[in-house]
Design brief:
Strand order of the largest sheet: 3-2-6-7-1-8
Number of strands: 8
CATH topology: Rossmann fold
Order of helices and strands: EHEHHEHEEHEHHEHE
Number of domains: 1
Largest sheet: 6 strands, parallel
Helix content: 40-55%
Oligomer: single chain
Shape: globular
Distance between the termini: 18 Å
């Protein structure tokens, strides 16, 4: 996994998505990297269950600040203002998380389901803005970021929406 990767997966199957997420986070933790996971409660629970089944000591990684898992809704509340991502608050929130997880020179991988939450609310412009903020942060801070969207969220002309979001990412993962 190269630094500055900004990956996106549009998935139709939860198991396929969770396989990708587990591989992304678990692979980093096995390599001594840190992982930031900003996800919904069901996805956090499923991920941690899978990581433990794969032999990863999630509690130790959390204690060492190598695994930081936060609820997507709560994280959005830290930087969304009137339905729009506030640049300064976003950078402060993510900067704090990156600093915390980079101790001892560790490389960081992050998963963000924040954009999928906004998208599911019909906040398309805010979603695109947040993706652009992420893209800039990935380049400046040199970390890998994985974003995922459930295919069910693309109700009208999904191909056009997916193409629009693809332009903000360096690579897409089949889903």
């Amino acid at each position: 996994m190269a630094p500055c990767e900004h990956l996106m997966q549009v998935y139709g199957d939860e198991d396929v998505f969770l396989d990708s997420l587990t591989g992304f986070v678990g692979g980093g933790l096995r390599e001594g990297e840190s992982a930031i996971v900003l996800a919904t409660a069901p996805h956090l629970h499923a991920l941690e269950k899978r990581l433990r089944a794969d032999g990863i000591d999630v509690d130790r990684a959390r204690w060492e600040d190598r695994y930081v898992a936060l609820l997507a809704e709560e994280t959005l509340g830290k930087f969304m203002v009137d339905g729009w991502p506030d640049d300064e608050r976003f950078l402060a929130t993510m900067g704090e998380l990156l600093e915390r997880t980079r101790r001892h020179g560790r490389t960081v991988r992050a998963f963000g389901e924040l954009v999928a939450v906004l998208w599911s609310r019909g906040m398309c412009a805010a979603t695109v803005r947040l993706e652009l903020l992420w893209a800039k942060l990935v380049q400046e801070e040199r970390f890998a970021l994985f974003c995922a969207y459930p295919k069910a969220g693309f109700t009208e002309h999904p191909e056009a929406y997916i193409r629009q979001l693809c332009t903000a990412h360096s690579r897409t993962i089949p889903g």
